[in-house]
Amino acid sequence: MTNAFSYACRDCEGMEACPASVVAETRDEVWKLMELHARVAHDEEPADWDQETRDYLGTLIKPVSV
């Protein structure tokens, strides 16, 4: 039974060396943590991500059981 969602930065193309990952109860919470991580660790501005990038990143959020 799925009761959480996860994202591992290393699953993102070009970020294979990044050890960061998050697990949260909802997809929305994972998105917020992903955006914070992108700002802090990669000096990216998530507001600048186009829809294609957001769609790709969304495929990297996986349901998990914890």
From TrEMBL:
Top-level lineage group: Bacteria
Database matches in InterPro entries: DUF1059
Pfam family, one: DUF1059
The protein's name in its UniProt record: DUF1059 domain-containing protein
Protein source organism: Shimia aestuarii
Lineage: Bacteria, Pseudomonadati, Pseudomonadota, Alphaproteobacteria, Rhodobacterales
